[in-house]
Amino acid sequence: MWLGSWNYDTRLFEAYGVEGTKDFYRSVFYPGNGHCGGNAGFPNAGLINARDPFNALIDWVENGTAPDSIVAFTQPNDTGNSTLVCANPNQAVYNGAGPKTSATSYQCTDFTEEPPDLTGFDQTAEQYHEAPP
Q1: Owning domain of residue 78
Q2: Do residues 89 and 18 make contact, with C-beta atoms less than 8 angstroms apart?
Q3: 67 pLDDT above the threshold of 90
Q4: Which pLDDT does position 86 carry in this prediction?
Q5: Residue 72 belongs to a domain
Q6: In a domain, 12, yes or no
Q7: Which of 66, 85, 103, 120 has fewest C-beta within 10 Å?
Q8: What is the reported pLDDT for 122?
Q9: How confident is the model at residue 37, as a pLDDT?
Q10: Contacts for 27-34 with beta carbons within 8 Å, 24 or more apart?
Q11: Is position 113 within any domain?
Q12: Neighbour count for residue 35 (Cβ, 10 Å)
């Protein structure tokens, strides 16, 4: 059903624009993670630590600081390699310096429109009946 989430994001972007959607909504997809986090096929993927998104939500609601990204780690207790996970539709891009296994070596793109490659997920979602047409 994950394609349904992509489709929902796109519908919001189409209705309010990417910048308008950022006023009230964030969607953060952890690459290489299964439904509840972790994937043996992607040992370097940053794991979902439920505390991090929850603290980001608290900071947004109580302090007005909306999360543009979350740092995920490959090991428990915020250890191991780190990954910068950007709010959709933005993507982490290597800045050309530093270890590729560190979130500090990346920055989030700042798309003002949904990139065509992400919009393509919506066509796939409809094809496989995972999102309403």
Answers
A1: 2-127
A2: yes
A3: yes
A4: 93
A5: yes
A6: yes
A7: 120
A8: 52
A9: 65
A10: 27/87, 27/88, 28/53, 28/67, 28/69, 28/70, 28/85, 28/86, 28/87, 28/88, 29/2, 29/5, 29/85, 29/88, 30/72, 30/85, 31/83, 31/85
A11: yes
A12: 9
Tokens coding 76? 């428990």
Average pLDDT rounded to a whole number, residues 63-85: 90
Q: What is the DSSP string of 20-33?
A: HHTTT---B--TT-
Tokens 């993507």 belong to residue: 91
Q: What is the mean pLDDT of the chain?
A: 82
Residue 15 in tokens: 């209705």
Closest CA to 74 of 27, 22, 31, 12: 31
Q: Is 116 in a helix, a strand, or coil?
A: helix
Q: Domain total for the chain?
A: 1
Instruction: Please check whether residue 36 lies inside any domain of the structure.
Output: yes
